[in-house]
From TrEMBL:
Keyword Repeat recorded: no
UniProt source species: Cronobacter turicensis (strain DSM 18703 / CCUG 55852 / LMG 23827 / z3032)
Domain (3-hydroxyisobutyrate dehydrogenase-like NAD-binding) ranges: 164-282
Cross-referenced Pfam families: NAD_binding_11 (PF14833), NAD_binding_2 (PF03446)
GO molecular function per UniProt: 2-hydroxy-3-oxopropionate reductase activity; 3-hydroxyisobutyrate dehydrogenase activity; NAD binding; NADP binding
Annotated active site: K169
EC number in record: 1.1.1.31, 1.1.1.60
Record protein name field: Uncharacterized oxidoreductase yfjR
SUPFAM superfamilies on file: 6-phosphogluconate dehydrogenase C-terminal domain-like, NAD(P)-binding Rossmann-fold domains
Family matches, as InterPro entries: 3-OH-isobutyrate_DH-rel_CS, 6-PGluconate_DH-like_C_sf, 6PGD_dom2, 6PGDH_NADP-bd, HIBADH-like_NADP-bd, HIBADH-related, HIBADH-related_NP60_sf, NAD(P)-bd_dom_sf
Source taxonomy: Bacteria, Pseudomonadati, Pseudomonadota, Gammaproteobacteria, Enterobacterales
Any single biological process term in GO: organic acid catabolic process
Amino acid sequence: MHIAFLGLGGMGQPMAQNLVKAGFTVTVWNRSPASAEALRASGAQVAASPKEIHGADILITILADDAATENVVVEQGALASLAPGALWINMATVSVAFTEAMDALTRQRNIGYLAAPVLGRVDVAAAGNLNILAAGEAQWLAKAQPIFDVLGQKTWTFGDSPAQAAAVKLAANFMLASAIETMGEASALVEAYDVGKGDFLGMMTSTLFAAPAYKNYGAMIAEDRYTPAGFTMKLGLKDVRLAQQAAESKNVPMGVAGVLRDNYLDALAHGDEQLDWAALATVSARRSGQKPKA
């Protein structure tokens, strides 16, 4: 099986590396060539451009957003380089509308399309322990499963329409952002009464909220540890906006999403664009006049 892997950012690099280690023939491309060259040393082939992936049975992309994905795959010719019967697996978090458009485009070209965004940060990707949220036709899911087995600890399937997985990922990221926001607000409250947020979050994440998302982000908030960013504030804002768009298209009210959007804008207005999205928790503290601990 010949895999073309486009997009070697924080998540893509370790994912492509794991596929090389698993013995797949992998051709990689990245806008910044250094990441691709690092994989060449591990045995990957390096394409000079997205369109130079001839012979690939499967195309995997994990790019920043709708625009970047369309530019690389459609405008720069990656999709046109695939033969009929090939499969495109989009593992990025993109909009439902874009997913539907790409599903229609690939059908016109007799190419399979799966949406398979992931849950997990860079360290989880490196360990091959991602949770993969997949949707698409059964034949394509079956073809992709050996790849998913390398990249993730579990594949969660949500239907035969790729848009379903796109919606699930946006809903999941909305919930994560909401958890960060509530931990930030609650921490600001207890600190106003001279209770350390580390003590408070340590208690909460060991009792009522003893789940990975709360534990991991709670520790970051307790320590004001927002660099290096595993997922930036700018990307957090993007995903909240995409969730709002998906909700509006189905007449689903999401009041909390509006609060999150405004608070991300507040953070970006204060120069926090490149911090980890866990820094959303600092907005409530700043508004209440609290200073980060040195």
